[in-house]
Amino acid sequence: MDERTTGSWRRVADLSLLDAAGKAAVRVGSRQVALFRVGDRVFACDNRCPHEGYPLTEGHVAGGRGADGGDGACLLTCNWHNWKFDLADGRAVLGGDDLTVYPATVRDGGIYVDLTGPSAADRMQAALKGIRASVDRHEYGRMARELARLDAAGGDLTEALRQIVRMTASRFEYGTTHAVPAAADWLTLGRAFANDRARVLTAVLEAVGHFAWDARREPPVPFPNTSRPFAEAAFLAALEAEDEEAACAIAKGAVQAGLSYDALAPVLARAALAHYQDFGHSLIYVYKTGQLVEALGPEGVYEPLLLMLVRSLALATREDLIPQFRAYGEVLAAAGPSGTDVPASGDLRAGRLRPILEAVAGGLGRPLDTYDAVMEAASWQMLHFDTRYQDHTDLPLSKNVGWLSFTHALTFGNAVRATCTRVPELWPRGLLQMGCFLGRNAGFVDPDLDGGAWAVADGAAFLEESRLGLFDHGQFEYVVAAHLVKLVQAMAEERAARPDAPWLPLGLAAVKRFLNAPLKRKHALRTARQAIDFVAGE
After folding, report:
1. Does pLDDT of 75 surpass 70?
2. What is the DSSP letter of 3?
3. What digits encode the pLDDT tens for the residues 113-143?
4. N or C: which end of the chain has fewer CB within 10 A?
5. Contact residues for 328 (Cβ-Cβ < 8 A; gap 6+)
């Protein structure tokens, strides 16, 4: 026995305990230890399978190939799910989580076990390694267990997310996805309930899981290795030209020059609002990437998150170039920045896109008042969404509209207010792009629906209840969960920033109806019929 283990060995049983079956479980304090005898060797490990906790003494031991590929290992199989562990070091040969094993020896007819176990630092590193290993197959349960192990060892849960960001960033082929804004909002929620360990862990779990899901089995698409000195005009020109390589190189130059995300945010916002782009996702991504960088700290995640964002900006769709939204650019070019004719929200709820945009343009000189009118109209539209369009199976592709088209108008509006308050020159673009949502959604509402049935009496209590409900949202699709957390958090931000905003009661009623409505996400018959019609026209 070496000095390191002196005094740490405990006699836990007589060797004769293993005479009958070659295995037994013993209790040492609060711990159950499984003992196995294989020939003249004795092994000790936790008796609970690290997968779901079933007793490993109900499993069996056999020879086989070890985790390192070598022969002669003693493999312990948990009979519940066939997970297999190398008893020499606890590594999972088949399955996921590794098993905790303890040094064991036999002296004077007794079994001695060193139950010291790994240090807290080693347990943290093992948990982080396990989280990284769970990504490719999106092993959600293992992510949760490894995060719980990290937490139990005293580790920082957000370090897991930092490592996953660095690990997966280049695997997002088209750059930023909903995983980024959702992660920012989940971390905000986790901080709001910091005294509840389960909710804090849930928040990080959902963030890690979404990154893992969007990156699963995707090959890396490396970012450019080169960098260029940052210059705003060159950066914006590269994005306008969809030159991802040049834009990423300039972004790397900005990081190397010490420019913070906060310093770059106005430039990134100009790029995001240069077009009615990616149906508004670009601006949301710019806004929420900043929140995520702040939440995680810039060390190690700023550059990968920035490069993901720049890639998405370079490759984003530009809806203002299609006929449906062509009026946006024309109205923007003709608009005067000082108009004070704030539109009535009722005039923005229905009709064609151009008149809606022209009404919005008339109030650009009073941006916050016009913002309220637009948000009230967007809230009314969402409250009156005609869900028959969500459920249809026999209308053309252009009528495929669902709840998320309406929720997005409010989350985009939140990003517009936060961004344009800081960069006022962008108000015209932000407000007119909000108008694009109104024009897009105007044809899919039921004006006769009784919106009063969804009125919210206490906004603060409703938002608190809604935020608590997010921790048990029940949605399998991460994109749906992302829209839930983004919408509730956007409304919470809006209420915190301007609790007396006149549109808030209508907005909260719309959110209440949405949270209580069925959400149809798969359309098998619709997809088949539309495919048949499409092919018939080829």
Report:
1. yes
2. G
3. 999 888 999 999 999 999 999 999 999 999 9
4. C
5. 276, 320, 353, 357, 432, 433, 435, 436
Between helix 478-497 and helix 403-422 the angle, nearest 10°, is 40
Provide the 3-class DSSP secondary structure of residue 227. coil
Per-residue pLDDT reduced to its tens digit, 327-377: 999 999 999 888 899 999 999 999 999 999 999 999 999 999 999 999 999
On whether the CB atoms of residues 193 and 201 are closer than 8 A, the answer is no
Please tell us whether the domain made up of 232-319 is placed in CATH 1.10.10: no
b/e 279-294 (16+ beta carbons within 10 angstroms → b): bbbbbbbbbbbbbbbe
**d(Cα 271, Cα 274) in Å, to the nearest integer?**
5
Which pLDDT score is estimated for 64?
Answer: 56
Rounded mean pLDDT, 187-214: 97
- Tell me if the pTM is above 0.85: yes
Interatomic CA distance for residues 538 and 97, integer angstroms? 51
8 A C-beta contact, residue 206 and residue 140: no
Residue pair 90/102 in contact (Cβ under 8 Å)? The answer is: no
Pairing of strands 60-64, 73-78: antiparallel
**What tokens does 517 get?**
């409505």
In the numeric block, which tokens belong to residue 57?
């003494």
| Helix residue ranges per DSSP H, 100-215 | 120-133, 140-152, 157-168, 179-192, 197-215
d(C-alpha 324, C-alpha 398), whole Å: 11
Question: In the chain, what is the greatest distance between 2 CA atoms, to the nearest angstrom?
Answer: 95
In the chain, domain spans: 3-114, 120-215, 232-319, 322-524
- pLDDT score, position 5: 40
Ramachandran angles phi, psi of 343, nearest 5°: -70, 150
Per-residue confidence band for 29, with pLDDT thresholds at 50, 70 and 90: confident
d(Cα 68, Cα 390) in Å, to the nearest integer? 52
What's domain 3-114's architecture? 3-layer Sandwich (2.102)
In eight-state DSSP terms, residue 445 is B
- Residues paired with 104 in a beta bridge: 113
β-pairing verdict for 92-94 and 83-86: antiparallel
Q: How far is 304 from 245, CA to CA, in rounded Å?
A: 14
Phi/psi-derived region of residue 483, left when phi > 0, alpha when psi is between -120 and 50, beta in every other case: alpha
The one-letter amino acid code at 419 reads T
- Residue 359 in tokens: 């009404």
Per-residue exposure over 499-522, b if at least 16 CB sit within 10 Å of its own CB, e if not: eebebbebbbbbbbbbbeeebeee
Residue 88 CA to residue 66 CA, distance in Å, equals 9
Position 68 scores a pLDDT of 52
